[in-house]
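Annotated sample (chain length 73).
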Amino acid sequence: MIKVEFLGPIGKSPIEMEAKTLADVSAKLKEDNTLTDWLDKCAVALNDTMVNDLSTVLQDGDRVSILPPVCGG
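Output written by the structure step:
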């Protein structure tokens, strides 16, 4: 089981799911219409390390963070 957390203004509570790769996570999250607008814009971190390869293999207990874009000055 992995934990997926949604940071910043996404406003969704963390969820737990079974997933073998980040591609599995992506497919499951795309089923949620409230996330559709966010997913293409967000960065992803696995256990606090930025990743962008959907074939990344996940281990039981991993934490996937969905990070929306931010603006700063």
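Annotation: The two ends are 38 Å apart (CA to CA).
Annotation: Helices lie at 22-29, 36-39.
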